Amino acid sequence: MSDPSAAHRIRLGTWLSIGSPVIAELAAGVGYDWVLMDLEHGCESEAAIPSQLRALRGSNTSAIVRVGAPHPDLIGRVLDWGARGIMVPHVNSAEAAQECVEAMHYPPVGKRGISRSARVYGYGLNVPDASPPPPVFMAQIETIDGVVNAASIAAVDGVDVLFVGPADLQFDLRARPNEIAEGYDECLKHVVTIAHAAGKESGILVRKASDLPALLEMGFTCLAMDSDLALIRSGFQKALQGARNVVANSQAHI
Fold it and tell me: Could you give the CA distance from residue 63 to residue 81 in angstroms, rounded to a whole number?
């Protein structure tokens, strides 16, 4: 994800919601293209982000941080810590997207303040680049409004990925069934089409591997394969159930 404007190759990532640098380091070691550290939901905290970013140092895994809301001060701090990019939830309009872009970029493009002692500049050991690489901006499309305004959001210079939040989008479609004619799959296809027409990437969180073929067929290129918490949970369940089956079979033969 070092070049957000690169041709639409498939980028596989995962969600980090526990806040563990060990899990972040393991995810990088396994070979994920990117990881998402989630400050909107889960057990992540601002204090836990820097240690996870350090755990990724030297790897080829890009670190994206989802902020809970588009507060400019939080976005600036996360980028100062060394995150490669920012995901913002519920981006419902071009105006909202533009405000996020301004928070992520230094003048004259944006309004982000600069600190030469930030981690991203080696705590003062490195001179800030006059033309630093732009941060990756993943704008989440999670509502009917976001779907309807997808074209204008994608047109904002600085938006790199239209990233669908499937749970929130499905909830909004159920809550407001009369406000849009398209169903869930049609909304997904619309977002992908709009993103690619604008030269941007399209992304989505994937809960089941069985859903992946259909999403790839739609054209999604930036896919998060489940989360650390869900993968640990399913691993626990599988291991325990396997052990219980062995115990049950053993007792049946006594």
Answer: 11
DSSP 123-142: GGTSPPPSSPPPPEEEEEE-
Question: Considering its fold, how many domains does the chain have in total?
Answer: 1
Tell me the residue range of the domain where 241 lies: 11-252
To the query of whether residue 190 is one of the catalytic residues in this protein, the response is no
Contact 77, 69 (CB under 8 A): no
> Residue 221's CB: how many other CB atoms inside 10 A?
22
Choosing from 41, 90, 105, 190, the catalytic residue is 41
How many degrees, rounded to 5, is the angle at CA 156 between CA 68 and CA 205? Answer: 45
State the amino acid at position 46 in one-letter form. Answer: E
Among 114-118, 170-174, 228-232, the least confident range: 114-118
Question: Confidence class of residue 130 from pLDDT cuts 50, 70 and 90?
Answer: low
Find the CATH number of the domain harbouring 219.
3.20.20.60
pLDDT given at position 2: 44
Rounded Cα–Cα distance for residues 27 and 108 (Å): 36
